[in-house]
């Protein structure tokens, strides 16, 4: 599999010797439902991430002629689209779980903050207004705000990367895939599957 330098308008190029290199070798599922090989996924996602959000994604798979004309090669597009659609769905589950965790953490954090404020007010007469009293009261307030650090992090920052990757996988789930048959010398002799989209 060769990685070529390209402009964003060009399709993602994959050069392999057999169809099995695209997919996880230990996956027992039928061909069209198999997981992509981790290296292939990272390669495709890496290139796709460099494209603009408005640009349709196209993938070109270069195969030896005998492999390209085989039955499995005709299902490469559907298999890749199914995989990326599933990965987008999984990321959607992850996002919902993250927000569920954030809501629970927010309730706990606000409860701790309220308890700290109430405790500080209730004990004001016991600790006085000197240095120790200020240290005690401000320590409680800091503790209350620290308890809200996790929900603040979730709702302000943590969900962005997951949502961005889900959008990318959704784009890959509708990417066109072209299979190009090549002779032993590397020259194309034909193609199967959908034609790459053009920007």
Structure characterization notes:
By secondary structure, the protein is α/β, with parallel strands linked by helices. The chain folds into two domains: 12-89 and 174-193, no CATH class; 91-164. 54% of the residues lie in helices and 12% in strands. The protein has six helices and four strands. It has helices at 38-49, 65-68, 76-122, 124-127, 131-146, 149-172; strands spanning 12-15, 58-64, 176-182, 188-193. Strands 1-2-3-4 form a four-stranded mixed sheet. Helix 3 (76-122) packs antiparallel against helix 6. It is rod-shaped and about 90 Å long. Mean pLDDT is 84; it is low at 1-7 and 194-199.
Notable traits:
alpha/beta; 4 strands; disordered C terminus; four-stranded mixed beta sheet; 199 residues
């Amino acid at each position: 599999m060769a990685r070529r330098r390209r402009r964003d308008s060009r399709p993602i190029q994959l050069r392999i010797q057999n169809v099995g290199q695209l997919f996880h070798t230990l996956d027992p599922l039928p061909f069209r439902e198999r997981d992509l090989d981790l290296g292939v996924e990272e390669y495709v996602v890496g290139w796709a991430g460099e494209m603009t959000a408005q640009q349709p994604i196209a993938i070109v798979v270069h195969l030896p002629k005998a492999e390209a004309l085989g039955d499995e090669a005709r299902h490469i597009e559907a298999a890749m689209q199914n995989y990326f659609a599933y990965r987008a769905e999984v990321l959607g589950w992850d996002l919902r779980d993250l927000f569920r965790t954030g809501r629970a953490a927010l309730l706990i954090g606000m409860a701790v903050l309220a308890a700290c404020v109430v405790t500080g007010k209730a004990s004001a007469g016991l600790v006085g207004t000197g240095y120790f009293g200020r240290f005690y009261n401000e320590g409680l307030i800091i503790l209350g705000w620290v308890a809200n650090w996790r929900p603040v992090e979730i709702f302000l920052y943590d969900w962005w990367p997951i949502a961005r990757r889900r959008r990318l996988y959704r784009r890959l789930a509708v990417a066109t895939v072209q299979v190009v048959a090549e002779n032993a010398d590397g020259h194309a002799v034909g193609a199967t599957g959908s034609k790459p989209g053009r920007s």
